[in-house]
Amino acid sequence: MEPTLAELAAKVATLEASGAMKGTIDTEVYYFWATALMVLIHAGFLGYEMGASRAKNVLASGIKNILAFAFIIPTFFFFGWWIYLGFPNGFMPTADGDPGLPWAMAMGPNLSDNATGVFWAAFTLFAATTASIFSGAVIERIKMSGFVILAILLGSAVWILGAAWGWHPTGWLLTDWGYHDFGCAGIVHLIAGAFALGVLINLGPRIGKYNADGTANDLSPHNVPLILIGLMLIIVGFFGFLAACVIMVNGAQWTNIYGQPMTLSSIGFNTLMAFGGGIIGAWAFTRDPFWMMSGGLAGIISAAAGLDFWYPPLAFVIGFAGGATISYVNDFVVKVMKLDDAVGAIAVHGWCGFLGVIVVGLFASGYPNVGEYPPVTFMGQLVGALVCLALGFAPGFVVSYFLKVVRLLRVPDEAQIIGLDLAEVPLRAYPEGESVASRGGAALQPAE
């Protein structure tokens, strides 16, 4: 017996519902694994910062990084996600943020919601990345308590407010200025670098960094190979980071966060081209393995804001420019401004984040936005970059100054001399085989 029209209609409806559910699950799985891949960013930062420390400070540097990650997870649940959803128009919250409140139905294992948890997880990993960027700049002399406070402030409040303004599809930087920042050059990297700048002004240099005449000493890392491995892990995790910047809807054209059509191919082409350009640029101008690998990261950050639409050779040139300039920017920070940035975070993340936002205005002015939003312009990108700079610097400077006043910012000189591993952990990372210099020899004593 042939099926009736009603039976055929029922089968079609079942198939459509099944296809829609499959699409929903595919989307959920996509962001789940993109988030998992991003954890490698933090494994990379862990190795990077531990390697960049002297042997007497290795564990303290690693513990700070892990604690930042751990504390940002609950704080981003309790108020970070609400800030992103509820503050796209400025400093006054809107009702749109209510689904991000910790007691909202969406903030739990709701079987009818296959999106909120994985999106929240991806943003949480973005938040932890900002704290890890800041973490490297301040190693070897910041107090654990002060660091955790600053990491929570940056990761669960400051950067996500910037994301609400410049990355949310109704954020005022987009709706008023046409701001474009696909890969978070400004929203993550510039804000985190500017935050580190504000903190370093109040934190001060490590003992032995500067001589009495103001010249800087090189406080060499204890394990450069670990730095290189850590940086490469960050690059691997970056692919998960960038994948999570894509709005993936199964069966429809994929878009960026602003609703503009794009493909994963653009990320594949441009990320690798910028990565290669950054390494070559840094190596050409420094011949230093540390800056060479930092150049790979700098190259991607420099091209990040436009990774969704760059022509690949242009991404290479932009990445080359970022890698070629980071050592000079770091020299200015360390030798002229007299700020002891232990890993070059201000140069790699702050400067290259600024560069990444500005080059979109230079090379992509006129690129159309969806709907009635204004197109990309140089002025819009400049405004966005300055907003990210101020948003990162101001709270970093003000809150670190307060922590300095109440003696929660910097460890005592005696703790620096013996090493933070013994003073704060207390445990030695290398109980056998440490050199006298790595434990705080004469070369590391305060300048007279």
Characteristic key phrases:
Ammonium transporter fold; 448 residues; single chain; mainly alpha
Strand-residue proportion: under 5%
CATH topology: Ammonium transporter fold
Name of the level-1 CATH class: Mainly Alpha
Tell me the number of structural domains.
Answer: 1
Mean pLDDT: 90
What is the CA-CA span between the terminal residues? Answer: 100 Å
CATH architecture: Orthogonal Bundle
**Major pleated sheet:** none
Radius of gyration: 23 Å
Which word captures the global form? globular
Question: Which runs of at least 5 residues are low in confidence (pLDDT < 50)?
Answer: 436-448
Secondary-structure element order, N to C: HHHHHHHHHHHHHH
Q: CATH homologous superfamily name?
A: Ammonium transporter AmtB like domains
Helical fraction equals 55-70%
What's this entry about, in short?
With 448 residues, this protein is mostly helical. It has 14 helices and no strands.
Task: Give an account of the 3D structure.
- By secondary structure, this protein is mostly helical.
- The chain has a single domain, classed as Ammonium transporter AmtB like domains (Ammonium transporter fold, Orthogonal Bundle).
- Helices cover 65% and strands 0% of the residues.
- It is built from 14 helices and no strands.
- It has helices at 5-52, 58-86, 116-137, 144-166, 172-177, 185-203, 224-243, 264-286, 289-304, 312-336, 345-363, 378-405, 413-418, 420-424.
- Helix 2 (58-86) crosses helix 3 (116-137), helix 6 packs parallel to helix 12 and helix 8 packs antiparallel against helix 9.
- The longest helix is centred in the N-terminal third of the chain and has 48 residues, at 5-52.
- It is globular.
- Residues 436-448 have low confidence and may be disordered.
